[in-house]
Design brief:
- The complex is a heterodimer.
- By secondary structure, chain A is mainly alpha-helical.
- Helix content of chain A is 76%, strand content 0%.
- The radius of gyration of chain B is 21 Å and the shape is extended.
- Chain B is 73% helix and 4% strand.
- Chain B is mainly alpha-helical.
- Chain B has two domains: 1-31; 33-107, no CATH class.
- The chains are: A mainly alpha, B mainly alpha.
- Chain A: Its main location: membrane.
- Chain A: Belongs to the AzlC family.
- Chain A: The chain crosses the membrane at residues 12-34, 46-65, 72-92, 104-123, 135-158, 164-181, 186-204, 210-228.
């Protein structure tokens, strides 16, 4: 723990803070879903601490409760989480000089929002302490916020206004991250193709369409980056 | 489902989450992707975010329906995010538009 680490943590936290409010409705929804599926408070929070991935938790819950075969539960979770393999590979270089005992918890903490916000700086900043702080600050904040509001959802299920479309706040948060990324033309192509493919492939089983759409979007962006003339980023 | 099976399934979902997440971060120098793949991965965040967002904006009850309250709210959010740096504005106005259309006009 030193000053450069703390400076990095502060910068990362400040960038992630407004976006992190998008986690709140998701966490509340997840907490309510865990309780309504019939889990006790200990079971719900146990799963939440072990998995720490809202989409995977909500999607596998019906299978788990219905007593589906373990291979189906595992495969469904894996399909939903394959994007993290891509994220992990994309951000890994930013951890090349970080000790193993810190890299293992870093993997546990890697969530979509932090990845989207931190990756660019993680790959460009040379100061190891500042860089690790820049990842850990927002990651720990996101983790704490997530646990608190899932617990709130678990304990308060039933008392929340269920017709307020609060889950749309998560969509808004993802859009707010997406907009500055897409100011580069090739990135915009990747986003448009990825989004359109995802809509077209929504019927694929086990949510596999999302993964296929991401791969198609990446290929489209890569090709566009080669073909389109370079343009200064705004 | 019995208690022990419940916890076994939690452990399984946990592994299916944290093996992909930790993979390259933990392996570090011992595993790396070819430079072309790394270049392509720069597009992963944009493609993934769009792939997650698009269906929740364009799809209503399993069918593509471009003109719905969420789409209207998304367009407004997009315009605000392009125009102003204020981080709270998209949430306040986006939710305002969605709830206004849903509750006020009954869409």
């Amino acid at each position: 723990m030193n000053r450069r680490f703390l400076a990095g943590a502060r910068s990362g936290f400040r960038i992630f803070l407004p976006l992190s409010i998008g986690l709140i409705p998701w966490a509340l929804v997840t907490g309510v879903a865990l309780t309504s599926a019939g889990l006790s408070v200990v079971e719900a929070m146990g799963m939440n601490l072990m998995v720490y991935a809202g989409v995977a938790q909500i999607a596998t819950l019906p299978l788990i409760v219905a007593g589906a075969p373990l291979w189906l539960i595992g495969l469904t979770a894996l399909a939903l989480n394959l994007r993290f393999l891509i994220f992990s590979a994309a951000i890994a270089k930013g951890f090349h000089d970080v000790p193993l005992k810190l890299r293992i918890p870093s993997g546990y903490l890697l969530i979509d929002g932090v990845f989207a916000v931190c990756t660019e700086r993680m790959l460009s900043v040379r100061d190891r302490h500042w860089r690790f702080g820049y990842f850990l600050g927002p990651s720990l904040w996101g983790w704490g916020l997530w646990q608190c509001f899932v617990l709130t959802g678990v304990l308060g299920a039933g008392a929340l206004p269920q017709d307020w479309s609060l889950e749309f706040m998560a969509t808004i948060a993802l859009m707010v991250i997406l907009v500055p990324l897409s100011k580069n033309r090739a990135m915009l192509v990747a986003a448009l193709v990825g989004g359109a493919s995802s809509v077209l492939l929504r019927g694929m089983p086990l949510k596999l369409g999302v993964i296929v759409a991401i791969v198609i979007g990446i290929i489209a962006g890569f090709v566009a980056g080669r073909v389109l003339p370079e343009r200064k980023e705004a | 489902m019995d208690g022990i099976w419940l916890w076994i399934s939690f452990a399984l979902v946990s592994m299916a989450t944290h093996l992909p997440r930790g993979s390259f971060i933990v392996l570090g120098q011992r595993a790396s992707l070819p430079p072309a793949v790394q270049g392509a991965l720069r597009y992963a965040p944009a493609a993934a975010l769009a792939a997650i967002v698009a269906p929740s904006v364009f799809v209503v009850d399993g069918a593509v329906q471009p003109f719905n309250p969420k789409f209207a709210a998304a367009v407004v959010v997009l315009m605000i995010a392009l125009r102003w740096k204020n981080p709270w504005l998209p949430f306040i106005i986006g939710m305002g538009v969605l709830l206004g259309l849903r509750k006020g006009l009954g869409f």
